[in-house]
Amino acid sequence: MTHPLRMRLREGQRHHAAVGGAEAGLQAIDAEVVVFCGVRVLTASGTALSVLASVLWIVVIINAFNFLDNMDGLSAGVAAICAAALLGAAASMGQLF
């Protein structure tokens, strides 16, 4: 016979897997909305590849920040540093807007 605590752990693992799948689906929908608004990673390689690469990139970045979110302020600090670096790169190329 299985111990009740072990049964609860298994149920929790199943619940966590279901929530993780739903979360990944919502992240993909969020990424598709951003791409639909015209934000894409690659524009010279064709529409299909550009949309696929953009959705994949956005979902990977969302998950990377979710992994960083285990310490207070870490995600915000990393996001500020990344935003400053991207702003500098865009400004040096004349692509502010």
Write the layout of secondary structure elements.
Blueprint lengths: L3 H33 L10 H22 L5 H19 L5
Could you characterize the architecture of this molecule?
It is a single chain. The chain has 97 residues and is an all-alpha fold. Helix content is 76%, strand content 0%. Helix 1 (4-36) crosses helix 2. The longest helix is centred in the first third of the chain and has 33 residues, at 4-36. It is flat. 3% of the residues are buried. Residues 12-18 have low confidence and may be disordered.
**Portion in beta strands:** under 5%
The largest sheet, given as strand count, sense and whether it forms a barrel, is: none
Q: pLDDT average, as an integer?
A: 76
Shape: flat
User: Number of DSSP strands?
Assistant: 0
> What is the CA-CA span between the terminal residues?
65 Å
Query: What order do the SSEs take from the amino end to the carboxyl end, as H and E?
Result: HHH
Number of H- or I-type helical stretches:
3
Keywords:
flat; 3 helices; 76% helix; single chain; 97 residues
Q: How would you briefly describe this protein structure?
A:
The protein contains 3 helices and no strands.
